[in-house]
Amino acid sequence: MEFTYDITMFKETFESEFTWLNGFMRNVGRFSDRTAVFDPLSGQKWSYRELNSECNKFANAMKQSGVKKSDIVFNQLYNSPYFVFSYIAPQKLGAISNPANFNLSPGETAEIINHNKPKVYVYDSQITETAVKALKIAGHKPEIVIMADYLKKYDSAPEGHIKYEDYVSGQSEENPPVDFEPHIYDEVLRLQTSGTTGTPKGVPLNNINEVLSAHDVMMHFPLSPYDKTMNMTPWFHRGGIHSGGLTPTLYAGAELVIMRDFHPKTTLDYVQKYGVTFLIGVPSVLGLLATRQEKHPKDISSLKGIITMGSPLEKQDCIRFQEVLTPNIFNGYGTTESFWNTFLRPQDLPEMSGTAGRSCTDDEVRIVKVYDDRKAEPDDIVAMDNSEEGEVIIKCPNKTTYCYVGNEKTTKEKFYKGWMYTGDIGTWDKNQFVTIAGRKDDMIISKGENIYPARIEEAINMFDRVKECIVTSVPDKTRGEAVAAYIIPNDDTLTVGEVLEYCKNCPNLSKYQVPRYFRLVDSMPMTATGKKQHYKVKAQAKEDLANGLLLRK
Description:
The chain is α/β, with parallel strands linked by helices. The longest helix is centred in the first third of the chain and has 17 residues, at 48-64. The radius of gyration is 24 Å and the shape is globular. The N and C termini lie far apart (69 Å). The model has no long low-confidence stretch (mean pLDDT 94).
């Protein structure tokens, strides 16, 4: 390939130096004494210089243990200082940080260990029992197993494990020598999908993805070195680590405020006391915050915005949040593989609430037709009439590697010609605002009609006597599948008959969408990121039908 100029120095410099770690190290120099991380529970703060020193101790300890480029450092950690160290330190060695859900069962944890074959495993002492069981089950045995005892519950670690403080004791605080060749395509982070549709998959992210994911947040908030972010969701998922989490906050030179566990009162107390400027969480969390603020108001005027994601933001909720919490509400939509890809800004709300917004600055989102026997081509789009439904596809080469680790089959199913085929069903309008109807995998086919649970859930959730609902299907001899709704009531007096009557008269539900089966429950399966686990409810519904626990109406 011929160029009009000499690309040598640009190529060599860009490909080896345009990394997230180098961005963080620039902040260590220019913001040396500014607070990088604050942990309210312990009251401890780390300046950028101090944070770098702590991460160096961990990196040097791992280097002494033989950890090198492309080795996996697996962790199951709550939001805590240890998570920060486990994100940054591996990058200093060219290793890969691999965070996963701390709520996984021992079997699920063992499955990830077997698949990714980590050299190091760091776990929170709160899940010691899970970690011990997982390691017994797993065929692969990590060489170094570290217990991060944040809550100071144990005098010593289980046999064969070592406490974090003991592991890093006596290690140098100096930057470890760089004895590998960094490259922008190097994998630095491996996330696990939330598993809402089955076994979690490894999602590799490289230096370019990390830097440009940070840039994306810095553009869309916008985020500056003078902000303080606090993510109310776990950092182990994409929206946790990248939306106001470690990746953008420490790259921008801002301050990261740690929230280990979400509590509405604690959150509002932190905002008032510490001057938090950006909060991040799912809509259900915002609902709890608004209720608390209405009853026990705090001075939260420091907030520049609240960013929500994970599910659509309904109009009534949006108006309430804008009135009670902050007028600057943002809503993002995306995936583990691609971060967020559409965005609603405060200027779009509340008018466009209920939609997922339109594509982010560097992304492109389309709705293409759905065929039974093949993928639609990327240009085989549905009408922009907010009526014809199709599959949501995403192009964002800045934030995805277009693959799963060691999973060629699923890679081919999901990625095609530079696009990710999400499996989400939606519509769009002439201005390219996307509305999500549901998942292809969750779709119910009843008497030839395609039914998407998310639409029915949204309608039922508008009933003021319903706290939450999840819709799935059960086998039906005449229909193929029948719609079943699980309802969490707002109070104990709600009856199935009242819900049915509401559904029959709801203008947003067609007759074929009205559930035929109901069950009132106290809780429903959710991921740690607040997403409904439809596949679990579907399995439960089949059992409940056989056991007569579903009420037919």
